[in-house]
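Pasting as-is:
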Amino acid sequence: MRFEAAAGSDVGRRYAANFDVLHVSTEPLLAVVADGMGDSRGSALAGRATVDTVVEGITGEVTPDLLRAVVARAQDTVIEIGRGDVGLAGCTLTALTGGPDGLWIVQVGDSRVYRLRGGLLELLTVDHTMAWLGAVHGWYPFDSREARNARYHLTRYIGHPDRPAPDVLSVAPAAGDVYLLCTDGVAEQVPYARIAEVLGTRAPEPAVRELLAAADAAGGDDNATAVVVAVR
C-alpha cells in the first residue's frame, strides 16, 4: 500500500491569527494536528512545540510505548512553556502514523480522526470533552446551551497539570480507505453528510480545499485545519 496525503489550514473569521499547527509526510506516514487553546502566545507555542515533539519523537518502529513516551515528552514541554508569562499554554493532539502493516492513532483532546470505508464515514476517535460525556450519557440535549458550553471544557489536553495519557488506537488499513484528521473548526462546522460526500468524491488535495471552504461558508467561527490521507 501507499499513501496519498494533502493538508491545509484556514484562519477563519473569529481570530486574527491561526493557532492550529499541522504536519504531514507519507514515507513513512505521519500526520499530526494540534489545536491551540484560546488565542494567547502560550496557545501558539503549545501547538508548535507539540507537533515538533511528535515529529521528532516518532522514528523507527512505532509501538504504543513509543507513542505514549512521545506524548509524555510533549506534556512536559508544554507545561514548562506555561510557567512563563505567555498566557494559557495548551493544545489538542491528534496523530496518524504507521505503514502498510498497520496504523496507529494518538488522541488527546477534541480534534478528530474520521475514516471513510465502503461508503461509511466513521469517527474513530473520542472527544475528550464534557460535551462528549454529556451526549453519551444524555445529560442535556445535543443542541442546548449547556452542550455548547461543555464543548469548551476539555477533560484531556497537552499541557494539563495531571499529564493525562493519550488514547492509542490500532487500525488495520485497507486499500480505498480515506482518513481525515481535523480540528474542531472543521468538525463543528461541516456536517457529517458533507464530510462523507467530499471524502468519497475528491482526491486529497481538492478534498482539503472543499472542507476548509465549507467551514468558512458555515461562518468561519474558528481556525480550521484538515489533513486527508488516502490509502492506495
